[in-house]
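Aim 2 progress. For tRNA 2-selenouridine synthase, the working sequence is reproduced below.
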Amino acid sequence: MQPIRDFTSLFLQDRPMIDVRAPVEYAKGAFPSSHNRPLMVDHEREAVGTCYKEQGQAAAIDLGHQLVQGDLKAERVQAWVAFAAEHPEAVLYCFRGGLRSRISQQWLSDAGVDLPMIEGGYKALRSFLLEQLHERLRVGHIRVLSGATGSGKTEVIRSVDQAIDLEGMANHRGSAFGYTGSTQPAQIDFENAWSVAWLKLAARSSGPVLFEDEGRLIGRVAVLPEFLVLSQGAPIVKLTVPLEQRIQRICRDYFQDAYQRHLCHGEQVALAYLDEFVRGALTRIQKRLGGVRFARLIQCLDAGLVDLAQRGGWTQFENLVEILLSDYYDPMYDYQFASKAEHTLFEGNHQEILQWLAQQAQ
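Predicted structure tokens for this construct:
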């Protein structure tokens, strides 16, 4: 069976992939449609690797067969067979498309299942996606959605077909308060998902892709430096939303959401989590806030927790958000936006921007 060389079709079709690398390798980076069904688990791979360094390839292969045999081998082959039965169009890969892929493919064939392997394995797929991503960044056919904190930029991004939601891919909202309760992906996983999404958009349309204006980090995930440079000079669509609406959105999406996620464990647990979440975020930006402003915000938090526990009220949290926006986030946004305001193509609220983008796509 010929190995897969057409990586573009592979990702455009979301072909299911069996990643036969060890779990520790998979955790460092994989692909959106991949599933880890290892030939060897971590300690087995480590033992074989040590044997290879000390005694050579032949001895390492022999050790691998000794470690994965009998019921253990049958169990792993069955995992591949079950996956192939559920996904007949599946392909498989290891790190370089070498020995592990060939062994897995042969064992599958012995079990009556023929699956193609990817030429070059994970390394070749990763290189392809990085090249694709850097090429699109070089071409630079993008627009940037700008707007003050709490404007609801993500809502716009998710309502547009020709857009990529980097914060959604990063499982983070991109600020000190951006933790969503979900684990963030590995850096490589983030970059791979970004490249695949852009590959699909490019195959569907030649129009510009809309991105949210991002900083260097989205939580612990880093945005590529080339994107930051590109976005500084890219055409801007500016989202404008009244302060009161922004306060309500932040309070709802950040604080009330965090509270509700933990309320199933009891009110005290939810209150404790909300306290830890907000206090921790404020502490991370304490130096930039300054001592007086930080103390005032902590007072709002303490009062808000009491009010929430006693009366179920969120007024003090809204006061906290208003201080953060008026005294910290908005001045910072205005300063940063001033340097690129001349690139603004259109300015409006959610509905106006969506209507304008729809007209531009015609």
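The mean pLDDT is 94. This observation will guide construct design in the next reporting period.
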